[in-house]
Design brief:
Layout: H1 3-23, H2 35-48, H3 55-86, H4 88-101, H5 110-117, H6 121-145, H7 149-157, H8 162-200, H9 205-214, H10 218-246
Length: 252
């Protein structure tokens, strides 16, 4: 069976199960709204917004935080990781901080960021920045370390300088792992975004999901979850398309 056919079959079975449970009355609408209620909720959010803000404003707020936090964290983390992989002294300097941040739950220091920066955008963007940075740094560092030593010796024997080896050999060779790290970082940043908006937010999709739950608007909650999921898939696919264009030699 082709993978695309299997994908469509699994999605169809999931939708049929959803219809059977909800329309058949096996599950209360409070716990699992039927598709028609979700459609009505989406139309209501598009027309009336939520808590004095349009749905697009909530989406834009969340997207801004993701792009600002992920973009800055991934760029700086990648730069640090490249130098960590190429220069042992730099690795010795940054490795303790990167290895400490990487397994640390982001919400553990969200309270500190709120105390330092307040509940505005700065604390949320900084949190997402710190979530993306260690993942990107480790991916870039490992990408540099996985470059074949034979290729480096060949470049040295041909008279290439350290700068030329780094820019023309090591950096291109590490790009595949750098993009893999970026895609992993997006997932972590998205999970952190929702939690940060719940704890210290007054807008955004994550806050809308949490606030809707307080008033038992499970239809709004499910709409918000679907929006977050599709936004995450879209960003991942964008990174995948860019990776295929930039690292077109991968796997060949």
């Amino acid at each position: 069976m082709r993978p695309s056919i299997a994908r469509y079959i699994s999605i169809s079975l999931l939708i049929l199960g959803w219809l059977w449970l909800t329309l058949g009355g096996y599950v209360s609408d409070l716990f699992l709204p039927p598709p028609n209620q979700l459609y009505d909720a989406l139309i209501e959010l598009l027309n009336e917004g939520y808590k004095s803000r349009t749905l697009w404003e909530h989406i834009a707020s969340s997207l801004f935080r993701v792009l600002a936090g992920f973009g800055s964290g991934a760029i700086l983390g990648t730069a640090i990781g490249l130098y960590m992989g190429y220069f042992r002294n730099i690795n010795s300097i940054f490795a303790p901080f990167i290895e400490f941040l990487r397994p640390l739950p982001q919400l553990a220091y969200l309270v500190l960021l709120i105390i330092w920066l307040g509940i505005g955008e700065s604390s949320k963007v900084t949190l997402l920045f710190l979530a993306a940075l260690p993942v990107s740094a480790v991916a870039a560092r490992d990408g540099v370390r996985n470059v074949s030593a034979i290729r480096i010796r060949v470049a040295e024997s041909l008279g290439a300088s350290r700068a030329q080896i780094f820019m023309r050999l090591i950096f291109p060779s590490a790009l595949a792992e750098i993009f893999t790290g970026a895609r992993l970082a997006v997932g972590i940043v998205y999970g952190t975004l929702i939690a940060s908006e719940i704890i210290a937010g007054t807008n955004g999709i994550g806050w809308m999901i949490f606030d809707s739950g307080r008033f038992l608007r499970s239809d709004f909650v499910f709409v918000g979850i679907f929006i977050v999921g599709f936004m995450g898939i879209a960003l991942d696919r964008i990174l995948l398309v860019v990776e295929k264009r930039v690292v077109h030699w991968a796997g060949k």
